Amino acid sequence: MNISGNTVFIPGATSGIGLALALALQARGNTVIIGGRRTELLERIAAGNPGIDTVQIDTTDAASIDAAAKQVLARHPRLNVLVTMAGIMRVEDWHRPESFLASAEAVVTTNVLGPIRLIAAFVEHLQAQPDATIVTVSSGLAFAPLRATPSYNASKAAIHMLSESIRLQLADTSVQVVELEPPSVRTALLPGQETSEFAMPLEEFVAEVVSLLESRPDAKEIQVERVKFLRYGEARGDYDQVVAALNAADPHGK
Questions:
Q1: Domain 7-248: which topology?
Q2: What three-state secondary structure class fits 137?
Q3: In Å, how far are 114, 146, 200, 210, 238 from 242, measured between CA atoms?
Q4: Catalytic residue set
Q5: How much is the mean pLDDT over the chain?
Q6: Can you tell me the distance from the alpha carbon of 191 to that of 129, in angstroms, rounded to the nearest whole number?
Q7: CA 204, CA 24: separation in Å to the nearest integer?
Q8: In the chain, what are the domain boundaries?
Q9: For residue 252, what pLDDT is reported?
Q10: Radius of gyration of the chain from its Cα atoms, rounded to whole angstroms
Q11: pLDDT, tens digit, for every residue of 101-148?
Q12: Apex CA 243: angle with CA 239 and CA 247, to 5°?
C-alpha cells in the first residue's frame, strides 16, 4: 500500500485507532472518509477536520453497510483502500452461558461478520482499480489469548486467517491484503485501557504504523515492535511464557 495518493474508507473511525489513523493518513496526502453510527459525532469530527468526509454506518447491520457503500462510492468513485476497523472487545466469564453468550454473539457479529460484509460490499469495486488495498485489523490477541476476552481473541484469530486466505484468492487481482496487528493500545476499547501502563500510547502506535506503511509498501502484516512478543511466541518456542506474562499483566484477569 502506498502511503499517499489514496482514497480511503475507514468505518469505525470516530475514536481510538480508527480516528487517529484517519487523521494521520489525511495528513500524508490521502482523501479519507470515516464511518460511524452517531451522526452528531461524525458532524463534529468533520467540522474540526476540514477535508474529512463522513458517512453513517452500523457495521453490525448488513443493510446499513450496503447503504453506506453506495454513498461512499457515489461520492468517491476512485476509492481504492478499505480499512475494516470497526470492532468491540468484551470481558466474559464462560462458566455460565448467561455471562458470555450474548456478548460472544455481539463480538462475532461486529468483529467477524462486519469485516466480511464490508469486504463483500467493496471487493468488486476495488478489483476494478489499478492499485487497491484491503486493510484488515486483527490483534496480538489473535496469537496469544487474554483470559478475560475469549470471544475477542477468537474473532481476531478468525480475521488473521481470513486475511491469509483472501490474500491468496485475490493474488490474481490488483487488490493487496494487509493485516494490521495492534498490541494493547491506549483507547477506550475496554474500561481503563486509555490509561493503562501496559498499553501502547495511541500517538506512538499510529506514528509507527504510518512509518511501517511508508517503508514497507508491500508488507502483508503491519506489526509494531510491541506486538511481536505476542505474534511470534509460538515460533520462538516460548508461547507458554508469553501467555503467562500476558495474563499476569492483565488488569481484567481473575
A1: Rossmann fold (3.40.50)
A2: strand
A3: 29, 10, 17, 27, 6
A4: 152
A5: 96
A6: 40
A7: 12
A8: 7-248
A9: 59
A10: 18
A11: 999 999 999 999 999 999 999 999 999 999 999 999 999 999 999 999
A12: 170
